[in-house]
Amino acid sequence: SIQICIVFATFIVFMNLNFKIAVQDGARCYGALGGAVDLQLMDASEIKRFQWKKGGTLILQWKNNQIMSNIIENRSLFIPSNGTFRINNLSRNDSGEYKLVIFDSNGTETGQRTLQMLIQGK
Ligand SMILES: *[C@@H]1O[C@H](CO)[C@@H](O)[C@H](O)[C@H]1NC(C)=O
Ligand SMILES: *[C@@H]1O[C@H](CO)[C@@H](O)[C@H](O)[C@H]1NC(C)=O
Ligand SMILES: *[C@@H]1O[C@H](CO)[C@@H](O)[C@H](O)[C@H]1NC(C)=O
Ligand SMILES: *[C@@H]1O[C@H](CO)[C@@H](O)[C@H](O)[C@H]1NC(C)=O
Ligand SMILES: *[C@@H]1O[C@H](CO)[C@@H](O)[C@H](O)[C@H]1NC(C)=O
């Protein structure tokens, strides 16, 4: 099954479906070892540019209505129509801090959202 972690870019809120509550920035997001997780950006259509980073590493870059780079493209999928970034075949190494960095159309950073990913399994 796919765990879902909902991220609002225009509000400082995360929705953790495991607990069905809105939580603050820095929320925990859980994935199952070997499973998949959806990082679901609710208001992606309102954002011109964004990046998903893990630690200091740029994972996914969205700009000019297209994916500019995705270093895990062979096990992930970004669905522009609904802002979902699905990461498949999770390993323990996928645990850690994920950061959404948001930019305006001029490339000026306008905000960040952080979540803590925890990959759990046998
Ligand atoms: C995905 O890409 C990485 C790096 O290019 C490679 O090491 C790995 O074997 C690939 N995995 C699959 C399932 O293709
Ligand atoms: C986003 O689209 C994908 C592919 O169609 C789908 O699997 C996923 O459930 C969608 N997510 C939402 C929240 O609609
Ligand atoms: C999933 O990732 C593991 C390493 O974590 C790798 O050994 C395995 O081949 C991958 N499976 C698929 C279907 O890509
Ligand atoms: C996980 O990280 C360790 C240490 O950085 C590395 O040796 C290992 O190859 C990584 N495993 C996968 C599946 O990426
Ligand atoms: C981008 O820069 C132009 C020229 O400096 C300015 O007129 C415009 O308001 C800026 N757009 C945003 C979204 O800040």
UniProtKB/TrEMBL annotation:
Residues spanning the signal sequence: 1-22
Protein name: Immunoglobulin V-set domain-containing protein
Positions in coiled-coil regions: none
Claim: Signal is one of the keywords in the record: yes
Domain of life (superkingdom): Eukaryota
Record key words, sorted: Signal
InterPro entries, alphabetized: CD2 (IPR015632), Ig-like_dom_sf (IPR036179), Ig-like_fold (IPR013783)
Keyword Signal: yes
